[in-house]
Structures are given as C-alpha cells and as structure tokens.
Amino acid sequence: MVVLNKIYTRTGDDGTTALGTGERRKKYDLRVAAYGTIDETNAVIGVARLYTAGEHSIHSALSRIQNDLFDVGADLATPGKGKGPGGARLTVTAAQVAWLEQQIDLLNGELTPLKSFVLPGGYEAAAYLHLARTVCRRAERLIAELADNPGESVTPEVLQYVNRLSDYLFVAARFANDKGDRDMLWKPGANR
Predict the structure, then answer these.
(1) What global pTM score does this model have?
(2) At the topology level of CATH, where does 22-183 sit?
(3) Among the ranges given (56-70, 71-85, 137-151), the one the predictor scored with the smallest mean pLDDT
(4) How crowded is residue 11: how many other Cβ atoms within 10 Å of its Cβ?
(5) Is there a contact between 172 and 132 (Cβ–Cβ < 8 Å)?
C-alpha cells in the first residue's frame, strides 16, 4: 500500500517524475500524459458523482470505476514487466473490463434506441458524465499512441477498459437524462 507522509518531495523540480518502477521521465512524456489524463477523467467523474447520489446504480458504479482508474494509472505507470516498489505489478484485468460491459448492458437495456447523435448536456449529472466521457476518449487516444510507440508497452486490458469506460459514461449520461427522455439530439443541418 502507498504511504504518503510528505506531499512535496522536490524531486520533480527538474521537470521529471518517477514511474512505478522508479525510472524518471519528463513530465510531458507520453506515458505520463496518458496516466495523467486518466487522473483527469477520474476527477471529472468525482464531480459527476455529486449529481448522481440519487441514482444508486450509477453512483455506486462510478465509485468502483474511480477505484479501478487508479489500477489503470498504476498499470500505465509501470511499463513492460516492471515491478512496483512493493514487488507486485498491478494490472487491469479482463474481469474489470467484463464488469464494465455488464454495467453498460444493464443501463442500456432501459434506454430507447437512438435515432440521432446525442449532444452533451441535459441534467447536471449527464453533462458531467459527457465531459468525463470526452476526457476518457482523450486518454484512450494517448494510450493507443503510447501502445504504438516503439519501445513502449501497454497491457491490452488497459486499452479495453478505457474504451469500455467511455461507452459506459455515454450510456450513464443518457440514463441520467431521464433514461434518454432529456437527451438533446443532433439535428443535422438545422441551422443552415
């Protein structure tokens, strides 16, 4: 487990940060940007949770997702087969991906099929879930780029998890919008 007795260490004053393996990388390194954007996704989900307290199925799922996102970050922060300071390498599992798929199916089963693209917005919970989705998609793009980068590695489950998470956030946003009744739909060419 992590023990944080002191928040500032001054080790990052030179523009570098430590990965889970102890290796130092520039703070703008693609790997650091990827897990930093996962952290950003988690923060937006934290805001969304302020508005989902009345919807237990979404609120409790988001709580679990926030914890899982730390697993994603730990997986990304430990490249290759590197081990963390405690010896074990924390990785995202297929079971975590499957759980997200189950959550998507549960919520989506109560929604009417879409006949157009959804514009982000509606109730506060839905708006923040859409924002979390877009930040999650940015993280996914960074992770995909990292995976394609020679000399770098990403576990397949990380990319799968983040891809499913953005899908979950979309479905949860629709669910939070009165199960899609408050969705704002795109009207192609409406303002020409």
Answers:
(1) 0.89
(2) Hypothetical Protein Ta1238; Chain: A; (1.20.1200)
(3) 71-85
(4) 10
(5) no
